[in-house]
Every structure is written in structure tokens, then in C-alpha cells.
Write a structure and sequence with these properties.
Elements: H1 6-21, E1 25-26, E2 29-30, H2 31-46, H3 57-77, H4 82-106, H5 110-138, H6 159-171, H7 185-200, H8 207-221, H9 226-242, H10 252-270, H11 273-287, H12 294-307, H13 311-316, H14 323-330, H15 347-373, H16 376-391, H17 398-409
Antiparallel strand pairs: 1-2
Helix pairs in contact: 1-2, 1-5, 2-4, 3-4, 3-15, 4-17, 5-7, 5-8, 7-8, 7-9, 7-16, 8-10, 9-16, 11-12, 12-15, 15-16, 16-17
């Protein structure tokens, strides 16, 4: 891989930090929108005179489908007006060019990404450990969120209000859940999953990489996020399946260590009364929607809404960003609704409701073709992506684009046998 310029290295650092920085609004814009625009213009200037190469035709088709139908259905379902619909179209076009072409040409250096991602994840993991130490040994809950800023979260909530609400919940008896620099514990868990995978799937893996992956896994589990438990399990299962060559070496003891430490961490968490209560509530809510939890809502809400959509919308979807307006306009609701929030619908359901059966089919085509042609790292990332999308609202978030960039850009390491 050619040596990156300072500018390219800086952009890769910003790309890795994207899920953290995008939590805050800047002049009523998201960091992701500004970063995508910067990278597109930089790429066009740097590669002037050269044709843009599409990183993946299947994902390109998926993106074009989103662009065209979103513009059409924005005018049908939402009272935006043509100018607002066009502005949304332009924003998504910039993001599409960023993902499909520019970023994979000038930003993708798997070794540099691996180095930076591991370093950033190590720092945020240490902050999470400090949060736990301060709480369990000194009784001081700490939230590492920048105060007095507008968030891209909960309709533009102020970060100080979020911190105050969390502290009030703890005072009222809710158990403390560390989240490091993220707004939610699950966000740390999602951010850690690509880090664990690219640390495990390195060309010449060392014991240090295994130890670091174990550390990341334990930190993720300590968030008490159900997504962390499932996601980390998938990371290690794919590692053991795809890296069978390690069994021929003296790695057995290390892998046994992983098998022992991670369940022990889970056992420690279960002993905490609040965690056990939360698990029981989530299990009960899966059987009874009247006691819905965030987990059960994300797993079942999308299908419940989809069944109430009209036939055309079930086939073609409602268009990018139109779900809330569509459901309000058509008076669609389900048991447990206290006001529609797309965040309580998982990523797969969001694709189904937003882009219909056709959109889901195109997305599956991208996943299948990428998996067949992919490296071991790519295959593991794809499996983890689908796992996280089933358990969270990750579609069209900065976390989602990190996964997609790794899938589109990685094509030279750990070739499939």
C-alpha cells in the first residue's frame, strides 16, 4: 500500500472518529455531512482528470435506487416542497459518492485504519474502565460527554440535559451503565465490534492482538448491552471458524483463556441486581408487547408497521427519511407507541419499510456478492454488520458507514481460501 500523505492520514483519523464526532451538531449540520463533502471535494481535486471508479456495483445500484425513489416519494409522502426534497437528494448524493468512490480510493489503507482504529478504541476503552472504577470504588458516576452542546440525538437534546437525566436516573435507583465517550452504552458496543474484528483478522496475528481483542470484548460486555454480548460472541465465533490455521499452532491455551474470561465477565454482570432485572424485563417484553422494551421494539416494531403499509409502499418503500411522516400521515401505530421513533426499529426493518421488498432484495444482493468475493476479514465484517442491524437502528448511521467502508474497501488482505 502506498504511503499516505499527511492530509490523507488526517482524513482517515477523522473517518475513524466519525461516530464520536457526529454525536454533536455543528452549525445545525452533522459532522458526517461536512466530512463527506470535504472528502468528495478533496478527492475530486486530487484525482482531477481521472474517472471515478465505483467500488461495488451492487451497492451502487442500491444507492441509486435509494436516491431516485427517495426524491419521488419525498414529494408524495412529505410536505417538504420540491426545494427541500432536492436538498435532501443532494446531501445523499454527496454521501453516496463519498462511500462508493472517493473514500475507497483515497482513504482506504487497511493497515493504517487498523492502527488508528485500535488506538482510538483502546483510549475510549480505558475511559470506560475509569468510569467503572470511579463508580464502584468511589460512588461517582462519570459521563465523558462534552457539556452544553447540541446533540444529533433525541431531537437535538443538549448534552448537559442528557448528563443530568442520566444522573437523576441513577439517583432514582437505576444501575450505572458505562458508555465511555458515547451517548449510549450500545454505541460503544457497536463501535468496538469492527475494532475487535480488524484486530483479530490481521495478516500476522500476535498474542498481543489476542489480548487486546479480549480487553475490547470485556469492556464491551461491561456496558451490559445485549447487543454487546451477541456482537462480541459473533466476532469470536467467526474468528475461530475462519482462522482454523491457528489451531495448528500453540494458540490453544490463549483460546481457552478467551473461553474462560468472557463467560466469567458475563457471570459478574448477572450478579448485579439491576442487570438481572433488566434482562428479565427484556425477555418478558418479547412475549408481551404491552411491556415493550427497547430490545423487543427494535426486533418486532418494523414488521408490525410494515404489515399496515399500503401495497405500493410495501413493494417500493416510502423513500429515504420519510418513515415518520408516512406513519403520522396514514395514522399507523402499534401497541406500545408513545410517539413514533425510527430509533425503535432495527436496521433491517428500516430498509424494508423505507425501500420496500425491492430495496431489501437489492441490499441482499450486495451482501451475498460481497460475501462470496470477500476476504476472511470482509466476511466477518458482513456477519457482524447483519447482527448489529438486526439488534439496533444502525442503518444510515456513521457506525453503518464504517462497516460499509470496510466491506467495500478491503480486498487485499487475508484472501479467502
Amino acid at each position: 500500500m502506498a504511503k499516505q500523505s499527511r492530509m490523507q492520514t488526517l482524513l482517515i483519523i477523522l473517518m475513524v472518529l466519525m461516530p464520536i464526532l457526529n454525536q454533536y451538531q455543528v452549525f445545525q449540520l452533522t459532522f458526517f455531512e461536512m466530512f463527506s463533502t470535504l472528502v468528495v471535494f478533496y478527492g475530486l481535486i486530487k484525482n482531477r482528470g481521472q474517472k471515478l471508479k465505483i467500488a461495488n456495483r451492487a451497492y451502487g445500484f442500491f444507492s441509486i435506487y435509494i436516491l431516485m425513489f427517495s426524491l419521488i416519494f419525498s414529494l408524495r409522502y412529505v410536505d417538504l416542497g420540491f426545494s427541500s426534497a432536492l436538498m435532501r437528494f443532494i446531501k445523499f448524493t454527496i454521501v453516496t459518492v463519498f462511500i462508493l468512490s472517493i473514500s475507497t480510493q483515497i482513504l482506504f489503507d487497511i493497515e493504517l485504519i487498523r492502527k488508528i482504529y485500535k488506538y482510538v478504541l483502546y483510549i475510549v476503552s480505558l475511559i470506560l474502565v475509569i468510569q467503572l472504577i470511579l463508580y464502584y470504588f468511589m460512588g461517582k458516576p462519570l459521563y465523558a460527554i462534552i457539556p452544553n452542546l447540541t446533540l444529533n440525538y433525541n431531537d437535538g437534546m443538549n448534552s448537559s440535559v442528557l448528563i443530568r437525566n442520566n444522573l437523576h436516573a441513577i439517583t432514582a435507583g437505576y444501575y450505572f451503565r458505562p458508555s465511555s465517550v458515547f451517548l449510549e452504552p450500545a454505541h460503544y458496543a457497536i463501535f468496538s465490534i469492527p475494532g475487535i474484528v480488524i484486530t483479530l483478522f490481521t495478516e500476522k496475528i500476535s498474542r498481543k492482538d489476542i489480548v487486546l481483542s479480549i480487553f475490547f470484548t470485556i469492556c464491551s460486555i461491561l456496558t451490559t448491552s445485549s447487543l454487546a454480548l451477541v456482537g462480541c460472541a459473533i466476532c469470536w465465533i467467526t474468528f475461530l471458524l475462519f482462522r482454523k490455521d491457528l489451531w495448528k499452532k500453540s494458540w490453544n491455551k490463549m483460546i481457552l483463556l478467551v473461553s474462560a474470561i468472557i463467560p466469567l465477565t458475563g457471570y459478574f454482570l448477572i450478579q448485579q441486581g439491576g442487570v438481572l432485572t433488566s434482562i428479565n424485563i427484556k425477555l418478558a417484553s418479547l412475549a408481551n408487547m404491552s411491556t415493550a422494551s427497547s430490545t423487543s421494539m427494535r426486533l418486532t416494531r418494523g414488521i408490525s408497521y410494515y404489515k399496515q403499509m399500503d401495497f405500493i409502499s410495501q413493494i417500493f418503500g416510502t423513500g429515504y427519511g420519510n418513515l415518520t411522516s408516512y406513519y403520522y400521515k396514514n395514522g399507523i401505530y402499534i401497541i406500545g407507541d408513545t410517539g413514533f421513533q425510527v430509533s425503535y426499529m432495527n436496521g433491517i426493518s428500516t430498509i424494508l419499510c423505507s425501500f420496500g421488498i425491492i430495496g431489501v432484495g437489492i441490499f441482499i444482493g450486495f451482501i451475498v456478492s460481497s460475501y462470496k468475493k470477500g476476504t476472511q476479514l470482509t466476511k466477518s465484517i458482513i456477519i457482524c454488520l447483519l447482527t448489529v442491524m438486526f439488534g439496533s437502528d444502525m442503518f444510515d448511521s456513521t457506525f453503518y458507514y464504517i462497516f460499509i467502508l470496510l466491506i467495500l474497501g478491503n480486498n487485499k488482505y487475508l484472501k479467502s481460501e
